[in-house]
Amino acid sequence: MQKQRRFAMKKWLLKLSLVAMTLLLLPIQAVQACCGFIIGRQLTKDGTTLFGRTEDYPYYPNGGKHNKNFVVVDAKNYKEGDQLEDESNGFTYPHAASEMKYTATYDSARGDGSNGAFGEHGFNEAGVSMTSTVTAIPNKKVLKTDPLTEKGIPEAAMLDVVLPRVKSAREGVEFLAKVIEEKGSAEGNVVVFADQKETWYMEILSGHQYVAVKVPEDKYAVFANTYYLGHVDLNDKENVIASKDVEKVAKESGNYKTDKDGNFHIAKSYGPEKYAEGDRSRTYAGITLLDPKSKVTYEDDEYELFRSPTDPNKKFTLEDAFALQRNRFEHLNGRFVPDDQIGVKKQGDNGSNDAVRKDQYKYALGNENVIDAHVYQINPKLPKSFGGTLWLGMGPSRNTPYVPFYGNLKDTYKAFKPQTATYDPNSWYWTVWHIDNMAINNQDVFGKSVQDHWKALEKQLIIEQEASDAKYKALKDNPEAAKAVEDEVTANALALSKKLFEHFKSYEADMHAHLIELGRKDDPYRASKPDDYKDPEPEKPVQPEKPVEPEKPVQPEKPVEPEKPVQPDKPVQPEKPVQPEKPVQPEKPVQPEKTQPIQTKVNEEGNPNNRFGYAATKDKESYVSTKVETFVKPEAKAQDPSEAVSAGNGGNENNRFGSSFAKATVETFPNTNYSYNVHP
User: Fold this and answer.
1) Averaged pLDDT, 74-93
2) Residue of 34, 137, 221, 318 marked active site
3) Least confident stretch, 31-35, 302-306, 561-565
4) Is the pLDDT of residue 85 over 70?
5) Cis peptide leading into 418, omega within 30 of 0?
6) 254-290 pLDDT, tens digit each
7) How far, in Å, CA of 440 to CA of 400, rounded?
8) Is 34 one of the annotated active-site residues of the chain?
């Protein structure tokens, strides 16, 4: 019942979003949250294709703290008439007679009728991968002509409808297009499909219009919550898949736009007149991070989707992809500051030297609302059933480790499965979330040591994964042998997950203990509750300030027969008031146990002083360098806001994390992180 109450609001918000978009018909696009990228295989050092997305959750009252599960959905046969029904908006679609196994990263809040599944991304057993979605909002003129469909296919159901039945990336686009034509779309969205041969980028433009293009292998792309496709050749059936009326609807809506050469321009026709600020800031940051010599400016009217690096010799790595999703404008040298830093005071000056201008605060890729970051590495040298490797960063991308999993898993580790709405010490997501929460609330203690620690760990994981790839590529042309090793692959993934999770718990416990030693508060149970949660009123002690007549002994001034004292050495209990010195727990505030160190079973085998090292047991070598094992000493002077890597809280409603500050002394600005869609 508690979960139903907590997440019933989400379903209502989704319906509200549809009403807002179709009835209010917003003239400009509201800022969403998610941001995707693609890097073609000709631009990577190892010849793999990279694509991924950050999934943001900026929605009150649970912004930035929304549990996710990573699971395997088994293959299943269905009888005629079986239907998939989505909880978020009532969308239904017939199951296929036989559906394939696939991985999915679901919302933990699902299955109770209050929230859709939101599977978001995954691999199927045919080696096809997809990420859905980067939400986008069509303009009001288009929506008048081709409105979104209330019970059309939503983001929440997209993965479960498409991924278990398609055997190539192109089939993924074609099937999703078929569903849109039959049932309509509930939202504007951007979806990416990939297999070992091709990568496809698809924009769902309105209720029944869409355009998808095959991604050039020598290009990269960064795309936030809007449309980017310019002119495409709609007659190129090999490289373009589009609805037959996409140009007609634009003309009928009175919003048919062209490029400088007079050709039909998709984004201008279906999208907003101008980029929303949060979309512009993330796209610009992503392009300039990947290509520092790019000639783009922040004020450009539009950003070209598929781009070539200025340096023709530039090659990208996995670590470049991780850095993209963690980016907080560090490469712009103070020009912009993440808007979750609004009002954060510099240590020691009470904010008096904070000279950051209002227009410097922008929405960052690695913002405080990220709940899942993922990078898909599509390796054509692996067996088809493997698909490639998912590098999963489940949690806030700023301080979350990316962990590798092949696409042919048969099961996932137990820590990925708890469906808990608030902090759970047995949950992967909540553990990493808590580590991030401690890091960003105590920057003077931890600095950037947490992120540096994960980077060191990721280097080792990349080396190990390359060795694993070399082993399994020998099975490329032997599907039966590749199928036979699925149990081995799964066992290895479970073992790695267990080892890493034990390390996370040790790391979390050490951070928590250190904060307690410093006299600081850390209560993940309380911090993970909704923003509108109010602590219960402390229990009123049983008259602790007024003991039961302790000051009025039984007739002390009128002794009974003073000439004949009745046991004068034993007054009628005047020295023992009715428990006046032990009030009913007045000195034990509510939840006192939560100041204790986080319970964990790691290091039971005697791992000595494992502050930030990897080893969880004494018989295993440290997984990362001892160079990152100690806490960063507090700096004499805190970072400049432009260098800060975290968010603030306190009186700023738009900041959920960081050091507190007095609301009266802070100039706050309108919240631009919230949208009219529930789950970008």
Assistant:
1) 96
2) 34
3) 561-565
4) yes
5) no
6) 999 999 999 999 999 999 999 999 999 999 999 999 9
7) 12
8) yes
Among 568, 625, 37, residue whose Cα is nearest residue 322:
37
Bridge partners, 220 (sequence order): 39, 307
Confidence of residue 32 (pLDDT cuts 50, 70, 90): low
CA trace torsion 274, 216, 384, 101 (10° rounding): 20
Strand boundaries in 21-101, DSSP class E: 35-39, 49-56, 68-73, 76-77, 83-85, 92-94, 98-99
Reading the block at residue 182, the tokens are 């039959």
Residue 350 is predicted with a pLDDT of 56
Task: Look up the domain containing 391 and give its range.
Answer: 2-517
DSSP state of 22: I
Residue 106 CB-density burial (10 A; 0-12 exposed, 13-18 middle, 19+ buried): buried
Sheet containing strand 220-223, edge to edge, reads 220-223, 35-39, 49-56, 370-378, 388-393, 403-406
CATH code of the domain covering residue 211: 3.60.60.10
Q: How many angstroms separate the CA atoms of 132 and 155, rounded? A: 6
What type of residue is 234? Answer: L
Residue 653 lies in a domain: no
User: What per-residue confidence (pLDDT) applies to 113?
Assistant: 83
Residue 353 lies in a domain: yes
Tell me if 643 is assigned to some domain. no
Q: What is the DSSP letter of 473?
A: G
